[in-house]
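User: Some background: our group keeps a shared notebook of sequences we're curious about, and every so often someone picks one and asks for a predicted structure to add to the entry. Today it's my turn. The entry only has the sequence so far, pasted here. Could you supply the structure so I can complete it?
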Amino acid sequence: MILRGLWRLAKGDAAGIKEFGGGLDNFYASLAPLIAFPLVGALVTAMQVDWRVAVLSFLARLCGVLVLPVLVYEFARFYGREPMWLRAATALNWSFWALLPVLLVGAFLGAILAQMGLPMRTAELATMGGMAAYLLWYRWFILRAGLALNGWRAALIVLVSGTLIMLFTVVPVALGLGPDPAQISHL
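Assistant: Of course. Here's the predicted structure to add to the notebook entry:
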């Protein structure tokens, strides 16, 4: 049901939100891989670089993962949609996996653009911009369908959550608190 829900939402079918469970077990299941992958990355970093960098990196990513459901809950409560937050947060957690097919389609389209004579850099920027726009729309649509919000309210949540996720995940690296990409480039 999760894949069917993701597919339906990806096509703009708001009823796809009903494919996701609205209980705590469903939410925890959607959250588990989002925590497991950074944890494994931190363990690898700890073994190869520095355990302090690994811990800080893991905590930054963990905050980045957890800020979205917290914001969804708070906005749902603020807008009087509290009973809907778990289903919406669960769908948003699972929507992370849409990145993989979007990357595949983007790579394919970028290759076509380059073959048509577009400079490689321009083709890359065009496809990356298109992928980013689609993924933002996808998150916006899930929030709109999951919390039964108007477009502006859903856009506000996307803007606030995107800003906070970036602060938690990008800023520590920019300040030198995360792993140096040159040290772990072979991972």
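Suggested note for the entry: Helices lie at 2-10, 24-48, 51-78, 85-95, 99-115, 120-147, 151-169, 171-174. The mean pLDDT is 89.
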